[in-house]
Amino acid sequence: MKRKTSFLLAGGICALIVAMGIGRFAYTPILPLMKFSAGLSEDKTGYLASANYAGYLLGAAMSGLVKGHGKLRIFLNGSLIACILTLAGMGIADYYGTWLFLRFIAGAASGLIFVLSSSIVLDELARKGRSILSGIFYSGVGMGIFISGIIVPVSNHFVPWQGIWLVLSILSISLSVVVFISFNAAQLNEDENHAQQNTKMTTTHPILIWLIIAYGLEGLGYIVSGTFLVDMVRGIEGTGAISSLTWIIAGLAAIPSTYLWMALVNRLDYIKSLCTALIIQAVGIALPVMFQNPFGAILGAFLFGATFMGITAMATSYARMLQPSGSNRIIAILTVVYGLGQIIGPAGAGLLVHKSGNYSIAFVLASGILLLAVFLLAAGTLFTKKRERKMNYAIRKY
């Protein structure tokens, strides 16, 4: 691997660790601590998660308006700083309304960082003919989940939950410095003419519509486990002691998953690989409900971690292949639809849990939504290909 490519991947991975592994998903292992110490109900914890994902939706939408790699980096750097400040703010503020605001801003920063860093890294890898390495880039999310999964329980032995947010903000400062240095050393292509051409959208590929719908359902389904897994496991008799471990396992499984799923794409294709990952994830989310013991919790966490970022890597790479021009816009569209699902998921699940007293219904519904995504993606693709064959036959006949 060339040195510049290594710098590019290092910067991209650290950006995802800050934005996703810490800025977004550190809330999952901290949630039970906040819930106990601050006396938060399940619906209020769900609203905090939804505030973050609403911000994520806004950030993703805003990112589609940014043009030119030079401007992408300016907005990326500003978003990293905003993410750090909101993490520190969570450790200082003591009012629920302030937490909602901070999680919203953190979500907006995370959405900008994810889309902008994805656009920068995927464009550069494509330009170098190294798109297969996108799986390594997306492993940053799993690394971040693994890191936060260790830091939260370890730090909790020394500081309360407020101190954990401050520890994570300090770590994020160090990682952001790596992003600034690495992207400078990578000597990114910042030809404005090239970048401006890259933002012009061409005709939308028919399969892209089905991909967007399925990806939105993935956002709605996966986020229930992505938000409440640790708290759910803590509430199952005999598994409370391993609740923090499940999140570490999810992070470990996610680290190599993106590269492995992208390798599978080369053997099969995007649609078959995506459908396989969605089915496995549906099983993983349902397992803690089907088997309410350590086996169900650990295997469910592993299957969840092994698929959720793999699905993101495959969906964004496939969308970019179907729509090679305007990469930041098409990634932004995918992320916005995904974000809509993420807003509805935690709020809806929180209300269900608040009324039913357990997570079972919410997790089963989430699993069913993922299976619906499989059906629509597979059926939509078959329908599109059948229609294309008819059109080609009609053209040849004419």
TrEMBL record:
All residue ranges annotated as the Major facilitator superfamily (MFS) profile domain in the record: 7-385
Keywords: Membrane, Transmembrane, Transmembrane helix, Transport
Coiled coil location: none
Bilayer topology: Multi-pass membrane protein
Keyword Transmembrane helix: yes
Gene Ontology CC: plasma membrane
Residues passing through the membrane, by range: 7-27, 47-67, 74-93, 99-120, 132-152, 164-186, 207-229, 241-262, 274-291, 297-318, 330-353, 359-383
Superkingdom per UniProt: Bacteria
Name of the protein described by the UniProt record: YbfB/YjiJ family MFS transporter
